[in-house]
Amino acid sequence: ELPPSEFMQVADSTWLVLSVVSNGREPPGCQATGVTKIARSVIAPLAEHHVSVLMLSTYQTDFILVRERDLPVVIHTLAGEFDIYREEGGECVPVTCDDVSNGFLKPKPAASPTLHPVQSPQTRFCVLTVAPDTLPAIATMLIDVLFYSHSPPREADGSSQDLDSITFFSFSLIEGYISIVMDAETQKRFPSDLLLTSSTGELWRMVRIGGQPLGFDECGIVAQIAEPLAAADISAYYISTFNFDHALVPEEGIAEVIQLLQQRQESSR
Questions:
Q1: Class of the 1-149+161-268 domain?
Q2: pTM of the model
Q3: In a 10 Å sphere around its CB, with 0-12 CB exposed, 13-18 middle and 19+ buried, how is residue 229 labelled?
């Protein structure tokens, strides 16, 4: 319904959302959250089958977006590990490989995915939620932060350097649940009694993937971060955007994360 505009760029692909629901079979004491939790079971297999994904971690759960044309490959890839359902008229209907067998194409072998550079700004972030009925109380502040408080984007020629800070604010409203990621300084502008955090109230540091906009055709970008963190059992939230991918890790673990990713970069050379 949005009118065409020279200021709005739209990706060619139509995307579908995969929501991964735990079935309670995880081993006791498994504390990993976000992208780390589904790295081995979902993200790595899709990368191996050359499926490009967008990842969206929220305060409540995690979503993986896949291109609609890749759905047959996605189902064939994940059917051995998961019970797969599609939503029809509000009801969940089981999906089998036979349902999409006519459209399944065996993926062609591809070269190893490019390992993109990562940047880790000094900015500290908070992962928050807000009760929907209190949203009107912070609506004016949200509008100001979203549309009037950002700095101009940096020029591409300086993107290869590490950033001292980064302007990043994410707001999602999914099925009535609100999730917000903001830097610690911006959080101070909001009424503290309306923003809900985890019981630990931990702060997060960011790893931004890519020195230039990544596009949508490449696969393995999420896996580049997810697999090393999963192997080290480090929790991470992951947010794909139109231009770049961003992983949030607990502040106390940022040094270990940077070391892990640097080792992966060096081993691929």
A1: alpha beta
A2: 0.81
A3: buried
